[in-house]
């Protein structure tokens, strides 16, 4: 039972590069979320999706894009990496907005 | 805006009880959650409580909710070294499309 799987686990990018953080879940959850976690701070919601084909902005969406073409996958794209995007990124999923969220192990991203 | 506050650190002796506190500002919360994060890992749901409940017990964990004071606590009985982690409080708010608002996390340190 894999749950929520994120790849890669670590990545170092140069300023201006782009990359996609992958997230997939095998629990048939409708809702999926992307968060960033900065030291000493709570999680900040970047984007979320309530089902395939539907995405919406969270608290800190600038500099990111998402897509949700299938129920299972919810990739997060950084187009022009900036040092302020150095963070740990977590993907989560839930069956509904009232059900607990299940998290992946995170992607540690450094922008240099 | 909505806010969730937690102390950053708590130090307890092995075998003692740990009490991690959380205060929140929004009165329209529906569910309140406790998540545990071990080093290098994602967030693991520990327990959650519906906003119309006062208490929930699950083995060594006891959650207390004082809705009047907007105060939530997590008590861990007989604290073990394996309980060493960061504990996050989060609330689900009706007015925010049930998005979670997160505290910054409390690092639980176990002294031998």
What does this structure look like?
The complex is a heterodimer of chains A (112) and B (112). Chain A has 112 residues and is an all-beta fold. Chain A contains no helices and eleven strands. In chain A, strands 2, 4, 5, 6, 9, 10 and 11 form a seven-stranded mixed β-sheet that branches. In chain A, strands 1-3-8-7 form a four-stranded antiparallel β-sheet, with no helix packed on it. In chain A, strand 5 (43-51) and strand 6 (54-57) form a beta hairpin. The mean pLDDT of chain A is 94. Chain B is an all-beta fold and 112 residues long. Chain B has no helices and eleven strands. Chain B has strands spanning 4-6, 9-13, 18-24, 29-37, 43-50, 55-58, 61-66, 71-76, 85-93, 100-102, 106-111. In chain B, strands 2, 4, 5, 9, 10 and 11 form a six-stranded mixed β-sheet that branches. Chain B has a five-stranded antiparallel β-sheet with strand order 1-3-8-7-6, with no helix packed on it. In chain B, strand 4 (29-37) and strand 5 form a beta hairpin. The radius of gyration of chain B is 14 Å and the shape is globular. The chains are: A mainly beta (112), B mainly beta (112). Chains A and B meet through strand 5 and strand 10 of A and strand 4, strand 5, strand 9 and strand 10 of B.
Q: Could you give a short description of this structure?
A:
Chain A has 112 residues and is an all-beta fold. Helices cover 0% and strands 50% of the residues of chain A. Chain A has strands at 4-7, 10-13, 19-25, 31-37, 43-51, 54-57, 64-66, 76-78, 87-94, 102-103, 107-111.
């Amino acid at each position: 039972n894999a749950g929520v799987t994120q790849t890669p686990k670590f990545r170092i990018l140069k300023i201006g590069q782009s990359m996609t953080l992958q997230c997939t879940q095998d629990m048939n959850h409708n809702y999926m979320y992307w968060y960033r976690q900065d030291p000493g701070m709570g999680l900040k919601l970047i984007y979320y999706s309530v089902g395939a084909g539907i995405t919406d902005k969270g608290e800190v969406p600038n500099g990111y894009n998402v897509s949700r073409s299938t129920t299972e996958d919810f990739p997060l794209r950084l187009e022009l990496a900036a040092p302020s995007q150095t963070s740990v990124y977590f993907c989560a999923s839930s069956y509904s907005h009232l059900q607990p969220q299940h998290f992946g192990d995170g992607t540690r991203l450094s922008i240099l | 805006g909505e806010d969730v506050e937690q102390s950053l650190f708590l130090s307890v002796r092995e075998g003692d009880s740990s009490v991690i506190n959380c205060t929140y500002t929004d009165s329209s919360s529906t569910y309140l959650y406790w998540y545990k994060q071990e080093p290098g890992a994602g967030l693991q749901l520990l327990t959650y409580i519906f906003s119309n409940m006062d208490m929930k017990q699950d083995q060594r964990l006891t959650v207390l909710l004082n809705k009047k004071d907007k105060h939530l606590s997590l008590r861990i009985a007989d604290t073990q070294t394996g309980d060493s982690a960061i504990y996050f409080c989060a609330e689900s708010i009706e007015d925010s499309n049930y998005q979670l608002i997160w505290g910054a996390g409390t690092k639980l340190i176990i002294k031998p």
